[in-house]
Amino acid sequence: MDLFEKNLKLLQKHDPALANRVNRHGPPENVRVRLSKEGLPVPQIAGTSLHSQYHPVKEAEQLTRGFEYDENSRTVVFGLGFGYHVLPLLEKGEVTVIEPLMTIFRAFMSSVDLKPFLPGVRFRIAETPASLLARYEPKCWNIFKHIPSIRIGEAYYKQLEKGLEARKFISNKSLKVLVVKPIYGGSLPTANYCVDALKNLGHEVETVDCDKFADGFFSLKETTKIKTNAEFLSQKFLNLMGEVTAAKAAEFRPDMILALAQAPLTPEAIHRLKELDIPVTFWFVEDFRTLPYWKEVASAYDHFFTIQKDEFHPELISAGVKDCYYLPQAAHSDAHRPLELSFEQKKLYKADLSFMGAAYHNRVQSFPRLLDMDFKIWGTGWDLDSPLGKRVQNDNKRVSTDETVNIYNAAKINLNLHSSLYHYGINPDGDFVNPRTFEIASCKGFQLLDNRSDLLNLFNVDEELVVFNSLDELKDQIIFYIANPDMRNEIANRSYHRVLAEHTIEHRMQELLIHVFINRVDSLQKNEASRLDPLSYFIEKAGRDTTLGEYLEEFEGTKNFSLKTLATHIHNGEGDLNDTETLLMMLDQLMQEKA
Amino acid sequence: MAQNILILSLTRMGDLIQTTPLIQGLKDKYPNARITLMVSSDFEDAVSLIPDVDDSIVFNLRQFKDSDKWEDESWVKIYRYIESKLNSIRNKDYDLLVNLSHSRFSALMVHYLKVPNVIGFHCSATGDRMTGHPWMQYFGTEPFNRNLNEFNLVEIFSRSADIDMAGREIQVLENRTGFSSYEGELSSLSKSGDDLVIGFQIGSSLENRRWSTASFAKLADLLVEKLNARILLFGVASESKSAAEMIQLTNNKDRVTDLTGKTDLKQLTGLLKDCDYLVTNDTGTMHLAAALNTKIIGLFFAHAHPFETAPFSSGHLIFQARISCAPCSYGVHCSNIVCIEKVLPEHILTFVENHIEHKIWQLPPDLINASELNVYETVTSAQGLIRLKPVIKHDLGLEDMFRLAYSVLWRETLVEGTNTSLKGLQELLGEYKNSDSITIGELLKNKTELLKTVEVLGNEGVRLCEGIVKSATDALPVKLVRFGEDIQRIDEKIELAGMTHPELKPITDMFTKRKENLMGSDIIGLGIKSRKCYALLRNESRRMIEILSVGPVGIPYSTHNSIRVAVPGR
Q: Is pTM, for the whole model, over 0.80?
């Protein structure tokens, strides 16, 4: 077994996703490995040696001597090289190493013994700055820069530093985000979770509630059977929604617009929104093969976020998309959480095996083989007269989020079979991971799910999640895990903590924002300066040393401050009106008359 | 004795002119007082028309209207303007303030100014709405009981300052220029002694209140062809389009002069004075012309209600549609405006012809049975008060009966020491006619029974308040709570009586309005004041029964009743 395989085996125990990635990467062709005077390997890339060709260890000690360790921050090393500088830092505490080039890591894995580095070092190789800052390393960073590595990956590290600045700005300031929701569909809850998450992150959010126009939309669809006319009406409706969004944006003046899955915006509407000179973004949370509408709209957006990448991103780039970014689904931990169910709830929802979802083709085909089990189904679209239908608990009626959470909590095993319109069971080419995966985990529920290629990047399979590759395997697993509750609970617990650490909607929104604003911090700062917090503006206008100014100062910290805030406060107050309050109430009356 | 009086009149020109009897009355009452009039900048020029005004203050919010955004970016600027303005007013030590607006804005302004004596809307120290004078309280209930109101707003305003209304009419200072000194476009205007010059005010602030341009055009043609009249069109610049439309429709364009947007107030005053008649919608121009003794033919459509805003001087003619939905309530958006079609140009022509010949308004024979038309003449009553006298005699309706009865009641109860002879009421009832239908007496009997119920409730309220006072004095909290609950039940019944029987609503609304003024935490004091409110309710109900008993037995009841009929557009 050569050094690479030995290292790989070790890495698989600690970071299977990274092990998988480095293993798929071919031998490093552009990295030359030279031996130093001491006989230690030293990488050379593009003519640059990343360590001393004489005494790399001594050099590393000298470089790291002045580094001040901060126990409140994570030590983050910019640049791996062959890790000589990392080991002295590791003596003081855990370290994260950020290296943009997988080829360097591959060369490292082939040349250096990994054992001294694990488990104290987290290797973050070829990760985007936004994912590093939002998901993997959200704590404060105490940075050590390996200068030779910085020279090689200059652009990357510059972005990383910009990302740090953006993260700092976003964390300290409240951005204004306008979220455009879809009219209907399974992605509508995701839109609502995004709104909540952005608010939880401290940002000001307004929504374009296209779902409120759903009745009109469906009525329009039923108006005519003549296809061209129907399309015409549909287009008019979309135009209207574009105008609604533009009107909302003109009033709210957001820093960013985020549209989600099937939000009814035409390319023309998107271009109009871009006249506001703010980023207009889209999170496409569907399967690009099943819903191809992205072809018409994707290139209009400034940033197009997707839950798939390997096959999807090349197509997007071909379609003219300026920036596409992989952003997987997640759980909304406020909604999806472990619960203590009541006796009645347990009675209603308890089952050995539960499935909550729609009656897609592959589910209808594969679930009958599970009918010899205590198997309950919730969801919509099921044939209630079929044998499967008799297991449907909710008469095909819509299941609320609260009920869904009860289902996940109550089941011994949650079955999570990704949908397919034409496979009989599992889609062997399935790439993206559905939100249910994260939601069940967020409820600390145990699940069995079909294997997906992206899963490895998101969870430690077998440790945090159990997957099946065939329906026979599924049945064996069901029997096994029903008989082993402790194992179920351990796995569920690990997946729960993983979701909370990296896979909540808050993580995704933070990552999205950092990615969008990484090159826009200047304009954000400019906007902020020109758009002073309204209250600060009024206090400045009134004069801090005046009676009015002093009165207004009492409202410092109030969000969404306006004259109405004052009027409501006075109206709800007690005691006699003073002069300031009387004048403000008069003003309020004038505003009402004007309105 | 007031020495320094401030009058807030932040409304329109017509309302300003309607305050002239009040101002005159204040001057009579306080001959040494200095009277200042606060007006909005839009009507700053109109102050020069108002007699007995020593000074004026212009409140200019118009400066903020178009140039800046109000919200957010400049409300501090507006705040500073109001603060500075009101502080300068405070320094002038007014001792009496009369607020003629019923807006909350004006009430807050009154509160800020802290003038020791106030007539009209104001608010308490905690910002709750209050109306001091009984006539201002009545003013607060009137919009909700318009069909049962007989009083012109002039009378209400003036009585709120305890001004004796007998013999008072609106008037203006005739600070005008004569025809001969007109310049520019007006220089061609002239009038010799025999010329018949008739003014038309074809616009109005509210679109629905306007007689159609086609009707005005038709009338113009009739007046020109039959009477050789010259027609002058008055109005502001924004009404020029309507004026052009009207001229387009006339056949006698050379006899019609469009003066819309071309006259200032002085010129307008002069021209109106020189008109023999003014045919007008309910507008400020109407009041100005009336004050100049120009004969008015007033057209009241949509929300306009002649009982409220007819010109407050005698000798004018008023037209109004007599249909179920007239006058319509404020806030109604009519989708089928029929009222303007009920007044025909031919009607007006005949009246004018007769007036020119006989110097009186004479009902033409073809209008005697005009069931969908009200025609009134403004006359001076025996008591010296301006009122509307029906020219067309219609069947007496229940609403008519109650309206007339309330005019007696309120003049008695809201003005202390007034006794009204019910003989006058009987004479007024003679302005309505008989016909074969259900007698009004039966309906009155039914309503009288309901009034007795309200009287009983008032009495019950008196008793409960006496109980509250006693319980509070004897410190009996449990009894107090029970009395409080009982009082609430009584109040709900009183309110219900008014809601379910609109004829009773003026009385129940006045009761509510009086109670609104009761503030504070002194239970005994509140109990005593509340007792007074219930006593007034009881007494007014009782008196109303007496007044209604005067109603002529055997006068048939007409089925016309605008209260409950569903009509287009409502």
A: no
